[in-house]
Amino acid sequence: ALEAVIEQGCWSPVVRVGEEGEWQAKLLKADGTEFEVHYQGKCIARVNWNILGTHNVNNAMMAIIAAAHVGIKAEQSAQALALFKSPKRRMELLGEYGGIKVFDDFAHHPSAIKTTVSGLRQHQPKSRIIAVLEPRSNTMKMGVHSDTLADSLADADDIFVLQPEGLKWRLAEKMPNAHVFESTDDLLAGLLTEAQAGDSVLIMSNGSFDGLHQRFLKALQELDDTGAES
User: Fold this and answer.
1) Which pLDDT score, from 0 to 100, does residue 230 have?
2) Domain identity same for 99 and 55
C-alpha cells in the first residue's frame, strides 16, 4: 500500500530502511540496547543506550536518518542517543524488593503490548515475566482487540488481567490461560501470592490502574523489611 502511494508521486527524498534498504540496523544485543548503524553496506556508527526493544531501535534509526538529511553525522546522533533518557512509563523500572523487579509501561493496545513484553523478555532472558494489564482504552472496552490480546502477551510466563467495569467482553473467554480479577484489590493479593525472587513484573496501563504500581511496591517493601527483621 505504501509503495502504491509513493508511485503516485513523491516530492521529497525516499529513504529505504531494512534488509533491502541503504540504511540498516544491526543488533549487537537482542534487547536493542546496543546496535550498529549501517549505510550502503558500511558500519558508520554504533549506538549504546539504555532504551529497550527493537521498536525503539527503529525509532532511533528514523531519528538518525532525519538528522543525516540535514547534515548531522551518524556518529554525532549516536552520541546524543547515548545520553537520551527514556520518558516516564516507558519500560520504567520502578523498584526492586525481595529480588522482584517492578516495571511500568504505558502500553495499552496489542501491538504496543507485544513489543513491550518482547523487549523485556530480551532484556531479562533468565527472569520469569509476569505481565499485568488493565484493558482501559475505548477500543479495548469495545472489544476491538479481543481476538489479538492473548497473542500479544505470549512472551509472558504468567498473566494477570483486570476485568474493569464497562468492558463489553469477558476476558476469561478469550484468555483462558490468564488470571482474571474483578478488582484491583483481588489482583494485588493474587500478585503478591504469585511473585517470587527473580521475577520481573511488568504492569501495563494507560491510566493509574487504581494505584496498583505503588501499592504493589509498598507491599513488597513491607514483606522485604519483615523478612530482614526476622
Assistant:
1) 58
2) no
